[in-house]
Amino acid sequence: MCSPVLLAWDGISPFRTARGSPSNMARSWLVVGFFVTLIGLERAVAVGRRFMLLGPVAALASTVGLVLAAPPLAVDSLLLLAYLGFAATFGYLLWVARTAHHTVMFAGALAWLASGLLWIMGFSLPTIVPWWITGFVLIITGERLELARALRPDRPTRIWFFTAITLLLVATGIELAFPEVGARLRGFALLLLAAWLLRCDVARRGLRQHGVLCYSAVCLLHGYAWLAVGGLLALAYGHQQSGFLYDAEIHAVLLGFVFSQVFAHAPIILPAVAGLRLAFRWFAYGAPLALGLSLTVRLAGDLLAHWELRRLGGLGNALSLALFAVTTVLAALLAQRGVSPDRSISARLALQAAGAGGEQGGNDDARLSRRPVMDERWS
After folding, report:
1. Where is this region: Disordered (predicted)?
2. HEC string of 224-261?
3. Closest CA to 33 of 66, 69, 74, 8
4. How far is residue 42's CA from residue 36's CA, in Å, rounded to a whole number?
5. Residues forming beta bridges with residue 279, ordered by sequence position
6. For residue 344, what are the β-bridge partners?
């Protein structure tokens, strides 16, 4: 949990330079490396393929190398190996199950691989960050599609979705050569995708439920709203190399959107990877509420160019992520003390909270089949 807190704590540190620095790269890679490790392990455990451990192991090794100031060549090689292993994981999943969600997640993995290549080629950190954002958005959106296979979208809905995804990838590439045009197009694509998630994702159904079902829905929709904010900032202000507006955009997406999804999907990831049972209590809402309020303060400081307000928001961001870690530990301890089944979070209940519906059943492990499978609903 220390790695994500660094992203929030960055609000208390001075602004990075346009070129970036090794320490800035180390902090940023700790965050991305955390997710490469987490998602890679989750997939490796689910599928049971040892080669899928390559990405997580290389990510951990490169993170240790950055912390210990290992030779740059060794760290860069491990970083690239982590991205390659991660992309290979989703490439394999796409090969065995040709579904829309695997296609989207594979595209996200390739975006992260591109960011690693750009770093090795000497591009600055602000140039690489849009590729990280695109990777996060595509991977998380793919997860939402995977967990909502009961959706039967009509043709306009499919066109809307794939237009947003395609525009996001194209805009991120354009931003390398034409930063202003690419950034604004990317912002528009993020807005399109956020609107699609708010309108078409089944998370809205969870608001009518109780307990963990409602909690997951609130976290998901909260994240979609922050994705829209990040898109609006990119559309309005264009490409930023540093400063208040740079801080506002990346943290609206990387904190507001990404970590809201972490809060919502923790009931799936923790039982799958660590075998933990979590007992739901009202205090679970504390972390997403604190994140939303502190991020609002942070962005207010950014937009008003008020350093102390931004600093206060950054401190609140770090504390909100720490609060999530504390409440998760408490939930696990309560579950071990014998919480009744209806108040315990299981992987199946979490899937329902995420909107997977009743079609999980026998097809839930379709991606594990060695025989390629075509997804009819999204073709």
Report:
1. 356-379
2. HHHHHHHHHHHHHHCCCCCCHHHHHHHHHHHHHHHHHH
3. 66
4. 10
5. 344
6. 279
Name the residue among 148, 378, 350 with its Cα closest to residue 263: 350
CA gap 167, 263 in Å, rounded: 28
Cα 83 to chain centroid, rounded:
15
Q: How far is C-alpha 26 from the chain's CA centre?
A: 19
Neighbours of 132 (CB within 10 A): 24
Residue showing tokens 């699609």? 196
pLDDT per residue of the chain (379 residues) written in tens, 0 to 9: 444 544 444 544 444 434 444 455 556 677 788 888 888 887 887 777 778 888 888 888 888 888 787 788 888 888 889 999 999 999 999 998 888 889 999 999 999 999 889 988 888 888 999 999 999 999 999 888 877 666 677 788 888 989 999 999 999 999 999 999 999 999 999 999 999 999 888 777 777 777 777 888 899 999 999 999 999 999 999 898 888 999 999 999 999 999 999 898 887 777 666 667 777 778 888 899 999 999 999 999 999 999 989 999 999 999 999 999 898 888 888 877 765 444 444 444 444 444 443 344 334 444 444 433 434 445 4
DSSP 3-state of 279: strand
Nearest to 56 by CA among 26, 24, 88: 88
Tell me the two tokens of residue 351.
């899937």
Q: How far apart are CA 17 and CA 241, in angstroms?
A: 8
pTM for this predicted structure: 0.82
Q: Are 218 and 288 in contact (CB under 8 A)?
A: yes
